[in-house]
Amino acid sequence: MVMTITLNPSLDYVAETVGKATGSVIRTQHETIYPGGKGINVSLVLKQFGIPSKALGFCAGFTGKELCRLLSEAGCDEDMIELADGFTRINVKVSGARETELNGSGPHISQEAFSALIQKLSALQAGDFVVLAGSVPASLPSDAYEQLLSVAASRKAEVIVDVSGALLMRALTFSPWLVKPNHHELGELFGVTIQTREEAAHYAKKLQENGARNVLVSMAEQGAVLLTENGETCFADAPQGTLVNSVGAGDSMVAGFLAGWLFTKSFADALQLGICTGSATAFSPWLAKKESVLSLLCESGKTDFMNKF
Length: 309
Ligand SMILES: Nc1ncnc2c1ncn2[C@@H]1O[C@H](COP(=O)(O)OP(=O)(O)OP(=O)(O)O)[C@@H](O)[C@H]1O
Ligand SMILES: O=P(O)(O)OC[C@@]1(O)O[C@H](CO)[C@@H](O)[C@@H]1O
What we know:
Elements: E1 2-6, E2 10-16, E3 30-36, H1 38-48, E4 54-60, H2 61-73, E5 77-83, E6 89-95, E7 100-102, H3 111-120, E8 129-133, H4 144-154, E9 158-162, H5 165-171, E10 178-179, H6 183-190, H7 197-209, E11 214-218, E12 224-227, E13 233-236, H8 249-264, H9 267-282, H10 290-300
Parallel strand pairs: 1-4, 1-8, 2-6, 4-5, 8-9, 9-10, 10-11
Antiparallel strand pairs: 2-3, 6-7, 11-12, 12-13
Helix pairs in contact: 1-8, 8-9, 9-10
The structure holds adenosine-5'-triphosphate and 1-O-phosphono-beta-D-fructofuranose (F1X).
Family: Belongs to the carbohydrate kinase pfkB family. Belongs to the carbohydrate kinase PfkB family. LacC subfamily.
GO molecular function: 1-phosphofructokinase activity; ATP binding; tagatose-6-phosphate kinase activity
Pathway: Carbohydrate metabolism; D-tagatose 6-phosphate degradation; D-glyceraldehyde 3-phosphate and glycerone phosphate from D-tagatose 6-phosphate: step 1/2
């Protein structure tokens, strides 16, 4: 089983604009509402590969109802805890000359609701995968991720953590199966600016020394670096294309990496599928569709495992 946990899901209101406008009315050319939140995005992309997952988290109000409706429409299994008050946040993404994001703070989550989420993790079994991704709402205890990680570890589940800063460093003590910082986040952890893949590999090694089993550093159009628990360091180029939307590229990469691993049990294949899935999202209006990932895989020439999915 794959479980994804999104503590602060969203409806993503994505609007296309032209030009840059500050301090004035911005008129949009087009707008769409998508189910959002990092763990949810991972579930949606896994679904593209035919991999079922259960999306856990919290929802509230009319926006929460719409979120669950959209997930169900996408064929995505969810088990959201419905909160009595507030509403699921609406995150505004404005594309145009430059992407701008306005992420809401989200509803208040009570201790009771958080305990109910922890309770749901008891369904995990050894070898299951849990993806923990996205920000922690202010109403939750600061060690919320650690509490979830501790339950996942006690169930012997494999954990993927996609968070940044102190949350990431603290998560390392639970020996997560995979962490996926981007190179900016990795650099910030060590007070440096990372520009090359070699520098990324150097600092990724430090995350391994602190407990991470596998470290995937995404570097946008520069590709990615993977350090595996087998001691390998792999570099992968990103496919070339026109950037349309970078929101969710990292989540898509996580989903593609996990899908590749589940299909082949090969880190090299997982990396290749992860890269192509991240880039397919970057080149699409929103999250990648399977067909666009396959077409990038074909272009990369590394198609030997394509018949496995
Ligand atoms: N401009 C781009 N061209 C090609 N591929 C890209 C581009 N931007 C992102 N990607 C793909 O997506 C992957 C993840 O991108 P990135 O490093 O920006 O992750 P991220 O910062 O976690 O993303 P985000 O937070 O925007 O979802 C990259 O490794 C690459 O495969
Ligand atoms: O506010 P957070 O939890 O850090 O990020 C939330 C979010 O920006 O992440 C996803 C893209 O990665 C979007 O679907 C969503 O709106």
